[in-house]
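P.,

For your records, the input lines for the assembly:
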Amino acid sequence: MAERVFMKGCEAIAEAAVRAGCRFFAGYPITPQNEIPEYMARRQPEVGGVFVQGESEVASVNMLYGAAAAGARAMSSSSSCGISLYSEGISYCASARLPVVVVNVQRGGPGIGAIQPAQQDYFQATKASGNGGFKMIVLAPATVQECVDMVYESFELAARDNNPVLVLTDGVIGTMMEPVVLPPMKSDEELAALKESFKVTGRACIGHPVGQRATCFPGSVGTGQEIANKEAEKMYATWDKDVRVEEYLVDDAEIIFAAYGISARISKAVVKQLRAEGIKAGMIRPITVSPFPYDTFANLDFTKVKGILDVEMSIPAQMRFDVDHAVQGRCPIQECRRSGGQLLTNDQVLEAARALIKEVL
Amino acid sequence: MERNIMMAGFGGQGVMTMGKLLAEATCEATDLKVSFFPSYGAAMRGGTANCFVVISDDEIGAPVCYNLEDLIVMNGPSLHAFIKNVKPGGNLFINSTIVTDPIERDDVTVISAPVTQMAIDLKNEKALNVIMLGVYVGYTEAVPEEVIIKGIEHKFEAKPKLIAPNVDAFMKGVEIGKAQRK
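Structure tokens returned:
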């Protein structure tokens, strides 16, 4: 087995990006993701890449836009209110069909919120990271190892679709340290081939009239925008295969936990605890929160499932609406929530589970 | 088996380093699952600092726990703030040089060591955290001593002169920890 190294979530994210070929990083400081730009500031010069501390989030995301248009594997990271400032730029990248990777290490919100961890940006991440109704694949890691694996893979997904990819994590996973096994470093030859394969012309401006095709500015005249929207829709329709979900002890479960990211790893520990007591508990964890695994919830056997506990570090709950959409009232759904930087613990989730069990079992 | 450990003290006492050393060494030298989670906020020297380490043979859920097997307190305020979080039957490690208030629970085992004074006596004032880690490992055997020694060697790779005094400080702590084991 490859060597385990003990790394902080944010640093592991940065190293995974470098190994995936990220050679451009622009960002602006904000807690709790500062270790990503800090690491990149040191690491990018070592691999011949570019690190820029932008003068603002708006500047940074637009540098990302430019770097991706020029063919660089480009990433940026921020946290919650910083990501709000990225909205315009992400939307422009989606419009121009540029393969950028953005990491949101969530903190409390709305507004400036709290610097401590939360999962308060679910709707923003999955439904509207900017204007215009575009979609992104949104990956939600639950461990530092998954941060590594998902960031590494996100560059491939972005390149495959020519579309932004969002990695949605939080301040717990970003600041905690865990053992990780790092993926191989992409060679200079591999990166050169990737850059060569990237052609701005004709693909970064689908739908633009002839003559504008070599530019990378989104926005169209005539029927161009509608054509671009239809092209994007065709791409979204291919994402059924990309839905990823962890189903843990779901087969005979009477109580199902629904949770993503940090809340899911906590829920899983509680599922084990309940199983040890003979209670048939299970967990469904969306790994892609977009596209969301609606079918996994919709196809549950509701003659067996007596209740769902939605666990989130968000008040009000947000993912719960997607769970509701799939379950369609076929079993009761209760919530276990914290927010504003208050961390969920195993004990709190266990207590909420016991309340649900008392009611439905 | 899962072991939840919280370490707390003043900023500057090396609380984070103590947690990281334990966790990192466990990662490097064992196959166990391990996590380290620092509290963060307006941290500063003289302010409060605390961190959580979880060591388990199974996947780790929350990296933060308020139902602790072990609590290490390096100063008085931490004792008062966190003693309620120790499980009945859990262990409380105190830096008895400066933690002098009575312990208001009789369902926890108290292991005390004057680590601030010991560090001063060793003329290695900064090593109070390493001594306390020794006390902890000596008493609990949460990980083998050699694991931490390896971790110290690794940590001070760039400053090899510091290895011997820190290993020495660690072993002084281990002796105290072992002596208090029943």
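Two observations worth noting. The longest strand of chain B covers residues 86-95. The first helix of chain B runs from residue 15 to 29.

Regards
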